[in-house]
């Protein structure tokens, strides 16, 4: 199968959760609080894809799979996962801007200033944008060793994304703590790998 | 389980009722789990057979009421707005009786300044295996709030007995306060002299106060309360002062700083 077809199929797979939401939307299956449903689903998938992106390097180091044989080069797998995270984060932001803020710039600015969890979410999403822009092979060549340094920002922004969720919760922190635990395990791998 | 009730004509405001599909499946009832679908999913874990409500404390005639006796009190239907502190809302036809009717049976004495409501505690309730809140769930009202004609004990909803996920077999409904003040599955009511601590005040004192009146002008520390999203709707509407019951209840708080007494 040509590489481009494989990449397209993999991207399509990553977009399936979004299609499920579209299906639910069209069939009135978003429940009693449809906006909350969309926000939680797109937020969860953003974190899942960030965690999956962070899983690629440990898999590489531990199992040394032949990515080219089974799929395509490792950095392409990682790139599609990272870009998917951005896509879900943008859907998350769009839902918030349209349905929570009613597309009012004033309300949005007030919300960012008054609510730390909104500010933190905004910072996390903003940090993701330069990583997406510089995710191409061309940028990787141009930035040389700085590329890796820049892309370490994913550690910070994933943490901020999880914090954004934890700060929203009323009392039951179980789910954000599970995400934090998974993130911690993935970070421990990196410390051990570097040693 | 149809109930025998009459429609109270004073409380039949022409409001669009929330689709029961939403009101009966999207619930905050942490005893049955913290996600919105958990209470419906785990509803059978709540056992309501032989339910009794104890009323004790500062009163002349402390008593234990069997649920059957409470159902023999005259039941009426009232349509109330309901506003959750999280920013969603609904309009629901409750069935039940005013709390004042029940409290007058035990003859509160002059030391009864506050009323404390205590909900079920049972190790079989899946949510109570975790100390998400300080169990059992406790809430409180000032005596004059408790005796207010709007304050209601609900035994039914949409013409039928309360389903477990909505707080069966008997719950409080205080329509001008955020939903968490309306305790579910109540087993004990205590008349007390000092202001009681609610479970939410213990959990997060900076966010949940004793009064918790619906107020679009006082934000929750983490989100605005100016608007609300009716269940089933994509867009928000403005939240009303005291949830639309300003004429009836504003006088209870005359001279009080509502920002301080949140």
Spell out the blueprint of helices and strands.
The complex is a heterodimer of chains A (195) and B (262).
Chain A: H1 3-26, H2 34-63, H3 67-70, H4 74-100, H5 105-114, H6 116-133, H7 137-143, H8 145-151, H9 153-166, H10 174-194
Helix pairs in contact in A: 1-2, 1-4, 2-4, 2-9, 2-10, 4-6, 5-6, 6-9, 7-8, 9-10
Chain B: E1 6-7, H1 20-23, H2 38-41, E2 52-57, E3 63-66, H3 67-72, E4 76-83, E5 88-98, H4 99-106, E6 114-119, E7 138-142, H5 143-146, E8 152-157, E9 160-161, E10 171-173, E11 186-192, H6 199-203, E12 227-230, E13 237-238, H7 246-249
InterPro entries (chain A): Fe3_Rdtase_TM_dom, MsrQ-like
Keywords (chain A): Cell membrane, Electron transport, Flavoprotein, FMN, Heme, Iron, Membrane, Metal-binding, Transmembrane, Transmembrane helix, Transport
Domain Ferric oxidoreductase (chain A): 42-161
Written overview of the protein:
The complex is a heterodimer of chains A (195) and B (262). Chain A has 195 residues and is mostly helical. Chain A has one domain (3-194). Chain A has ten helices and no strands. In chain A, helix 2 (34-63) packs antiparallel against helix 9 (153-166) and helix 2 (34-63) runs parallel beside helix 10 (174-194). The longest helix of chain A has 30 residues, at 34-63. Chain A starts with a helix and ends with a helix. The model of chain A has no long low-confidence stretch (mean pLDDT 94). Chain B is of the alpha+beta class and 262 residues long. Helices cover 13% and strands 25% of the residues of chain B. In chain B, the strands form two sheets. In chain B, strands 1, 4, 5, 8, 9, 10, 12 and 13 form an eight-stranded mixed sheet that branches. A five-stranded mixed sheet of chain B has the order 3-2-11-6-7. In chain B, strand 8 (152-157) and strand 9 (160-161) form a beta hairpin. Chain B is globular and about 45 Å long. The mean pLDDT of chain B is 97. Chain A: Its main location: membrane. Chain A: The chain crosses the membrane at residues 7-26, 46-64, 76-97, 117-137, 149-167, 173-191. Chain A: Belongs to the MsrQ family.
């Amino acid at each position: 199968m040509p590489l481009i077809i494989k990449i397209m199929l993999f991207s399509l797979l990553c977009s399936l959760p979004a299609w499920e939401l579209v299906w639910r939307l069209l069939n009135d299956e978003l429940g009693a609080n449809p906006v909350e449903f969309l926000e939680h689903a797109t937020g969860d998938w953003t974190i899942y894809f960030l965690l999956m992106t962070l899983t690629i390097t440990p898999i590489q180091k531990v199992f040394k799979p032949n990515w080219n044989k089974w799929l395509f080069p490792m950095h392409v797998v990682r790139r599609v996962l990272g870009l998917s995270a951005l896509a879900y984060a943008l859907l998350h932001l769009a839902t918030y801007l349209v349905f929570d803020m009613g597309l009012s710039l004033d309300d949005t600015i007030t919300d960012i200033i008054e609510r730390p969890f909104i500010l933190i979410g905004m910072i996390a999403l903003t940090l993701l944008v330069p990583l997406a822009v510089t995710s191409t092979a061309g940028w990787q060549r141009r930035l040389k060793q700085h590329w890796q340094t820049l892309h370490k920002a994913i550690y910070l922004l994933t943490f901020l994304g999880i914090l954004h969720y934890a700060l929203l919760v009323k009392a039951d922190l179980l789910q954000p703590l599970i995400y934090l635990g998974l993130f911690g395990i993935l970070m421990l791998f990196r410390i051990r790998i570097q040693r | 389980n149809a109930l025998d009730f009459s429609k109270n004509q004073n409380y039949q405001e022409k409001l669009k009722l929330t689709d029961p599909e939403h009101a009966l499946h999207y619930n905050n009832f942490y005893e049955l789990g913290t996600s919105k679908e958990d209470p419906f999913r785990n509803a059978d874990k709540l056992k309501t057979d032989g339910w009794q409500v104890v009323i004790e404390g500062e009163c002349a005639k402390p008593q234990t009421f069997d649920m059957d006796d409470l159902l023999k009190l005259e039941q009426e239907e009232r349509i109330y707005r309901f506003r959750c502190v999280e920013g969603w809302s609904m309009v629901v036809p409750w069935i039940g009786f005013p709390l004042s009717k029940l409290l007058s049976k035990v003859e509160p004495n002059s030391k009864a300044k506050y009323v404390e409501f205590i909900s079920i505690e049972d190790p079989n309730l899946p949510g109570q295996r975790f100390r998400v809140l300080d169990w059992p769930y406790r809430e409180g009202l000032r005596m004059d709030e408790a005796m207010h004609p709007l304050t209601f004990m609900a035994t039914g909803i949409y013409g039928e007995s309360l389903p477990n996920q909505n707080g069966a077999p008997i719950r409080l409904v205080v329509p001008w306060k955020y939903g968490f003040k309306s305790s579910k599955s109540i087993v004990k009511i205590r008349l007390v002299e000092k202001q009681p601590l609610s479970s939410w005040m213990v959990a997060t004192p900076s966010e949940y106060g004793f009064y918790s009146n619906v107020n679009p002008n006082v934000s929750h520390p983490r989100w605005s309360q100016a608007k609300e999203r009716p269940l089933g709707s994509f867009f928000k509407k403005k939240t009303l002062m005291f949830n639309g019951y300003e004429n009836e209840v504003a006088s209870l708080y005359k001279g009080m700083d509502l920002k301080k007494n949140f």
